[in-house]
Amino acid sequence: MGAQTVYDRLRQSILELTLDPGSPLDETSLSEQFQMSRTPIREALVRLSGEGLVTTLPNRNTIVSAIDFMRLPVYFEALSLMYRVTTRSAAVHRKPEHMAAIRRHQEEFAAAVERRDAIAMISSNRDFHVAIAEAGGNFYFTALFTRLLDEGRRILRLYYQSFDDVLPRQYVEEHDAMVAAIEAGDADLCDRLAAEHAAQIVRQIQSYIARDTVTKIPLRSDPQPA
Prior knowledge:
The protein has about 230 residues and is mainly alpha-helical. The longest helix is centred in the last third of the chain and has 23 residues.
């Protein structure tokens, strides 16, 4: 339970960007902060490392992983393609149990949007799109898309932040339209809707990153050993 508490709180701080990329995560300091031994701290850091949210340096110091803005163009290209491929495939291969899971995650996303709960939005959005990928039945597509969604969680946090966490109802409706197209088995419509959905996300993030408001978020750099 101790490791879970540390994991949950650190993960939330990283995803909310209250812990800046590059911030040091010293086991001794964290042990004092959480009033726990170093064992649960280490376990939590290992889990976060597995999610790509923290990085262990050659000198064994741990830091919050950097956001590699320089690689965003190729990331967006891969992400957009997987939106289209998985949604189109779901229209062809979906089963009733898949639709139930997709709808459940969409309801969770809509509720998170209503609450302006950015962390819940990130989580439910990820689960929604993973459920669509699973409905498509291609393990490789699902694995790749899940990895891309997980890698992009802090980028998605910037996306929601660009709206001050008041996400327009339009984006809930875009999800609803994809659900309806999948259920109708309209692969071409799914492809178009997914492409449009991905494109507006990319445009919004690129616009936000270009503003002065994100200058405090460090670009990726090669950390120097302490």
